[in-house]
Amino acid sequence: MIDFRSDNTGRAAPQILKALQEANEGTAPGYGADPWTARLQDRFSELFERRVRVFPVATGTAANALSLASLGPPWGLVYCSEMAHINTSETNATGFFGGGLKLVAVAGEHGRIDARALAERLEAIGPGQIHRGEPAVVSLTQATDLGAVYPLDELRRIAAVAAKRGLRIHMDGSRFANALARLECSPAEASWRCGVDILSLGATKNGGALCDAIVVFRPEFEDRLAVQLRRAGHTWSKMRFASAQLLAYVEDGLWLDLGRAANRIAARIAAGVEEGTPRSGTSRGTPMAGIRLIAPVEANEIFLELPAALMDALEAEGFLFYRRGPRLARFVCRSDATEEEADALLAALRRHLPAAS
After folding, report:
1. Which residues contact 11 (CB under 8 A, 6 or more apart)?
2. Is the Cβ–Cβ distance between 147 and 175 less than 8 Å?
3. Using an 8 Å Cβ cutoff, are 336 and 10 in contact?
4. DSSP single-letter state for residue 49
5. Quick one: which of 41, 135, 146 has its CA closest to 88?
6. Mean pLDDT for the chain?
7. Which helix (H) or strand (E) holds 121?
8. With bands split at pLDDT 50, 70 and 90, how would you rate the model's confidence at 334?
């Protein structure tokens, strides 16, 4: 059995489990008044090169929905990609916690929002049109739900469009470390310096155990978010254990090492699909006929269009992945995935493709 279902099926990094064990000594105040949570604020402020407020949360859904609820009024509109997780997979938690916030899908390639399409959407609702709702927030997924990464200049273009209408920017960074590893820039450059007000920072999918985070770059949103979290049951009682995980996550660049490891495995698979079976006497081949990458592999997700019979054969052989349609499969590479697993998948694709085509 080789598991490509999701990066949240993987093991927790040993460093994070060690941090939990070390935090399990003695007593400490609850609800964030502990030394670990205080250090977390300082460490993340250093990491993001400005004073931030960090709120540990249990899930990425909570991070997204409660962040958005703190940014927009109940009658507000949240603009996101058609493929965004908040739009397709979170049972409108944004609308629930936001008291009626409405999601508005915006077109774009590979799970991104297109800045021009966003501008056209906003132009359709002039100021004072009370019947249409109030544009309030833009939510960007980095890396996207099709495995692509927003370049920094693209983030800035979207932020400029949003700023003209006074919209806030939220970033769903469930795979933020994978995106940073691809962009090779600082956390600050990929977040608040591109106009982001609040970041949902993922850890669970990238070698974490039981914790994600909300990073607030604008102090005016801190108190409202703190109330939202408490009301929703997401203020940890023994918060030291949550904060200890997040401290270990970024210590010595662990989060980026884990993101790079997952990205490398995905890139290896993508290269194998594009190069196919090497020709005699060369290191390269031709693409596998009948298999198509539907989005660029820029982080750790791979979306392949391939025959249904080939998917059947992979499953029969013990490969675990998700079918997204009759001919669409998603393969996600974990931070603890191996080159041997990647090569086994490529070998199986080559082996079963002739019979499936």
Report:
1. 207, 336
2. no
3. yes
4. T
5. 146
6. 94
7. helix 115-123
8. very high
**What pLDDT, in 10s, does the model give residues 95-131?**
999 999 999 999 999 999 999 999 999 999 877 777 7
Token reading at 24: 């399990």
**Sequence letter at residue 310:** L
Q: What tokens were used for 128?
A: 């004072």
CA distances to 17, 38, 52, 230 from 29, in Å: 21, 11, 22, 17
Residue keyed to tokens 């990464």: 149
Domains annotated for the chain, with CATH where assigned, are 14-252 (3.40.640.10), 256-356 (3.90.1150.10)
| Residue-wise pLDDT tens digits, 14-46 | 999 999 999 999 999 999 999 999 999 999 999
The residue type of 231 is R
**How far is Cα 170 from Cα 161, in angstroms, rounded to an integer?**
14
Residue 192 to residues 80, 103, 242, 259: CA-CA distances in angstroms?
18, 23, 24, 21
DSSP assignment of 138-183: EEEESS-TTS----HHHHHHHHHHHHHTT-EEEEEETTHHHHHHHH
pTM: 0.94
Nearest alpha carbon to residue 172 among 114, 211, 212, 117: 212
Q: What is the DSSP letter of 289?
A: T
